Every structure is written in structure tokens, then in C-alpha cells.
Amino acid sequence: MILRLLIAGFFLLPCAWGKSPRQVPKIPQDHILYRQAEKLVKKKKPTLSELEGMQSQLLQVPLSIEVNSLEDELKTLVYALEVRRFELLVSLKQTDLALAALSRALNELPTIRWPLYFSERSATALERACSKQLRPALCEYWLKRLSEVLPKNSKEFQPILTLVASLTLVTTSVTGERLSGTYTEKREKDDDALGLIVAAFTRKDYVETANLGQKFLLEFPKSSHQFRIRFLIAESLSRNNRGAEALPIFEEIIQKAPWSWYAVLAGRRLNKNLKDQLLQSPLAPYVGEDFGFSPWDELKVQRVHTLLKAKDLNGARLELEAMSRYRQYSDAGLVQILDLSKQVGFASVPLKILAELVQRQSPLVRVSDWAQVAFPKMYSKEIETAGNEKIVDPILTMSLIKQESAFYAQAVSASGALGLMQLMPVTALEMDGAIALADLHDPALNIRLGVGYLAQLLQRYEGSWPAALAAYNAGPTRVNRWRKDLPQGAGIHEFIESIPYRETRDYVTSILRNVYWYRLNLGLPPLDLEATYK
Known about the structure:
With 534 residues, the chain is an all-alpha fold. Helix content is 62%, strand content 0%. It has 27 helices and no strands. The radius of gyration is 27 Å and the shape is globular. 39% of the residues are buried.
């Protein structure tokens, strides 16, 4: 022990020149390459040797790194560099090599990333290459592919459009809907039973709703819909003049799922402030307990600490994102991850951990610290500025951003939505045709365009928050159809419960839940939900 102290003291002594040596954290090699590759993709004039050298290094990373949380990101960058290599080879008049590089990128680069990496410069290079290409059929194939992944009203698409017109190609139509295609959700065993309950509630058959709900809970006691069903039972009992029977059900929802949308509704029925129902014990990191981490998880935690010291928050976020085996971690392990996520600013983690703790019925669910941890305030200035311009409640915008991207400005969804407010490129270009698609990761720009689009939807639905939010997620066409199918006199609860897509329904209720907690944290009275629906 004494020897260790002496060695430590030696390294802390000032060096001969009177300066204290600064310990520089050793950043993992894959993160170093990730940062270097990102910079090279954005570099104005890279050399061919720089591009090919970086690609070679990236391809070797999975072989040389024991725990690589960046494998998909690094692979994407390999082919993003291939797009830049294509541009350079065209300028060097090596057309065949250039088109081979573009072909590899088209085959391997994820479709949703093309608007980020295929620039006006890339399109101009393709125009030059195709004008010199002796195989027009091959160019025609590439143009068709690109016409499907690039928004037609973007600056990046204009040279493609010219070539498409010259070859008289038929291109895929692009609409302004929030999501493309249709939902293909996997149906669970309890979905049919759930559908019958919702149908009964929507047509105001409250006796049938309560009876079917009780049968549902007996048959599917562990269903993910259990709190939704409990609320529908209690609400039906209340509307059927059986309020005394409803009270304990509302209380149970608040006790077991205090952070859910249905707890917000139960609190309103009981006239209770949910914050007053929470425990005051802090969410302090555990010491000396088993976290349930595997050796790989332990190594990821070490890497997070290293990246935090190096102030590489994006790298630390990617490492934490890879630690998603929540069911295998102990409560202590979950709190450890939560503490790291707070330092990183990774705002999607708290509610995921809360969901796991709810499943375990852990007492940690009711700790008051979650009110601040799960609902952080970020980008307040940009949100307020955009809200003032378009007359949109800044708390609504912040609640939407929390749900859409968890305040991660670089977010890219599976459907290709970008940035804080997860704007589809087509939608963003409809709002401002002068932007470059890659700029949608800029927080101020993304918020300005997103708030503008939200303002349009609010105006379209006469200020109805639930309808505008549903349209933001699933597109106005679907929302118009859902509203048309509702019975006469249906209110906010009937509208929300009858949304047929679980993703959209959860989306709307999560944002309204966020609004409730943000208002509580700011000391504002709860929102009159009925007043938000028209």
C-alpha cells in the first residue's frame, strides 16, 4: 500500500520545468477513427489517398477492437467516404472507377443516409459521369435508385431531375406524409380482446367496456396494455354512476405506474398532483452492489468514463446506447446507467429504465428525482424563439422533442426523419426549399422548421393538440380518416383510444404526459386536456 502511494505521489510531482503533467484520457481507437472519418466526409477537398486510407482503417476496426459499439456507424462511414471518392474520381476523369464506387455506395449505404451524404456536388459529378458514360443503361439504373431516395424538391435532386428527364424515366412519387407506406405491426394475442374493449368504450357502451376489461385482466394479467385497460374500466364505471368502484382503480394506477399517461388521467379524476404522491428519497448511485453487468458491459462503462473525460459526449452516448440489456441488470445497475446518461445528456434512457422498473414493481419507480431526470429542459432559447414566431406553446414543442429525439440533434430514424424534431426531408423542404438536407441536424434550423410544421397542423385542426400530434407522426390523411370514423360527440379520450396504430397512440399520449410533467416542474397548473381537443 505504501509503495502504491509513493508511486502515485511521484507522478503527481511537478516536472523539472515547473509544470504539472496533465493526464490525457486514452480514447478508444474506434472512437478516434469515427471522429476522424466524420471530419473527412465533411472536408471540402480531401485527397484520394486520404479517403482510401481511412476506408482501409475503418474496415479493419472490427478485427482489432474487442468491444466495438460503433460497428454499424463505421460501416456507414466507409460508404459515405465512397460517395466522396466517387466525386473525386470523376474530377480525375476516371469515370469507370468512379461509377464502380457509386455502385458500391448505392448497394451498401442505408437509404435513410443518402440525403445526408449525397450533396449537390455529388449530383453534379454524376451528371458529368453519365454524360461520358458509354453504358447509358447503367446510368439509368443509378438514376432510378437515386430518384427513389432523394426528395424531388431538394437542391441535391435538381441535376438528377435533368438527367431523368433526358432519359424519360418514370420516378417514384413522393408525398408530404410524415411516414411512408403503412404500418405492419405484429399482432399480439391480446390485441383482438383489446380492440373489442376500445370499440365498446368509443360507442359509449360503458357496461360492456367494464365487463370486457375485467375479463381481459384475468386472461392477460401481464399484458403491456394493463394500465390502459384499468383506466378504461375505471372511466367507464365513473361515467356509469359507479364512481366509488372506480376510485381504488385510479389509485392503483397512480401507485403502480406513476409516470404513465394513464396516471396523469387518474390524477385528474382524483384531483391529485402526481408530484405529491412520490417519495423524496434520492436516486443516489449504488456502491458495493452487484450491477448485473457482463464483462463486455463493464468494458463499455469504462469507455463511457474515458469518453466523458475527453468531452466526447457523442461517443459516450453511442457506448451507452449499446448497453440496452436492461432486463439483465439489477436495480443498482440501472441506476448506474442512469447516472452516466445524466452526465452524457442522453435523455432517452430515463424513461426506458423507468419502464423496466415498472415491470419489476420496484419501489424506485416512485422516487421524486425522476421528475427532473426524465424531463430535462434543453434548447429552451431556440424553442422559445420559434414558438414566439409561430405562436406555438414552447412546452408542447419541448415535450414533442423529448419524444421524437430525446434532445439528440444528430438523430436519424428508421424512416429517414432527421434531427431534434425528426423532420422528414420532404416536409423540411416544403417548409424551406433553400436548405441543404445535411443542415437539418442544426438545432436552431430544425426547431424553426419543425415548429413551423407543427403550427400548420395546429391551424389545420383548429388548435387540437391530439389531432395535430397524431398528424405529425402518421400524416394528416390518416388522421382525417380516423376523425371521420368517430361517432358523434366523441371527445379526446375516444379519439386517442381509437387510434388504430399503437405507435401513433403511444406517441400522442407520451407527449401529453410530457406536457403534464414539464408544467409541474415549472410550477404551472395542469393543462385542461379537454380544452386541447376540438
